[in-house]
Amino acid sequence: MAVGIFDSGLGGLTVWEAVTARLPEVPFVYYGDNAHAPYGVRDAADIFALTCRGVERLWDEGCDLVILACNTASAVALKKMQETWVPKHKRVLGVFVPMIEALTERQWGDNSPPREVAVKHVALFATPATVSSRAFQRELAFRAIGVDVEAQPCGGVVDAIEAGDMILAEALVRSHVEALLRRMPNPEAAVLGCTHYPLLEHVFQDALGPKVSVYSQPRLVAESLADYLARRPEFLGPGTQRRLLTTGDPKKVGAKATQFLKRAMTFEAAFPEA
After folding, report:
1. For residue 127, which phi and psi values (nearest 5 degrees)?
2. pLDDT tier at 274 (50, 70, 90 boundaries)?
3. Catalytic residue check, 70
């Protein structure tokens, strides 16, 4: 009954932590493509190929359902994967929709026409690739009208987090927030469109001020996944083992993950040498 969690590196561990807490009976298999992080500066073809490779590895672990806990992969690769690549007996889902549903106060599966919602001015913080894809705006337009979205590409933040340099990451966050506020002085809500960013959610909130509601993905994705599995239990795959896989150095990745989550994290090589 395993479920796969895919990410370009360490950021998806924020989702992994939330889903394992929400669904402790499910053996989650995590795949971090640390050797190729960050995805946010790669082109679409590269992101698609790397994401498919990781998802196939999770299928090998008996995960018929894979969550792309990577906003860049969700924004750039997911639609093409679902339309051209994923077989009918498998599912690959992204992380945008649960957050947009919360932002627009719509329930899962609400396919009514888009309508006006309470929030009118939204700040989006994401990787350059996610921002350029405009996937967030596209998904939002299916559900809401009259919402002004100002997107800020947060170059360097993922690199700093992956390198373990949280001082640099915090400085970059504050710089990116300042840049966005010059264009949108009074956002009502801020969307953290990268699963690395919850590690710095308090920095975003402090830089934006107390009047801005900050939407972060892990808890929202966990609740959405619990609802999905309750309705579609057939996508609980045959895998039985909890595993943490990485394309990077397992010891180094494990040490960084332990530092970030403040709990012991032991990784294995996703593709061990023969």
Report:
1. -70, 160
2. very low
3. yes
